[in-house]
Amino acid sequence: MTEILPVRPSVVTSPPVSESNPSSAPPAEFSVRSDMPPSPTPVRDLVTAHLAEHPDEHPALLGGGRAPQDGTLPDTARRALREEAGPEVADLRPYAVEDAAPTPSGAVPHIVGVHLYLERDGLILLGRRHPDSAYAGGSWHALAGHCEAESATACLVREAYEEAGLVIDREDLELVHTVHVVDRPGDRDGDRPPRIQLFFRASRFEGTPELREPDKCVAWQWWNPEGLPEPVVPYTRAAVEGIRAGRPYTESGWAR
Question: What are the structural domains, with CATH classification, of the chain?
Answer without folding.
Answer: 3-99 (no CATH), 111-252 (3.90.79.10)
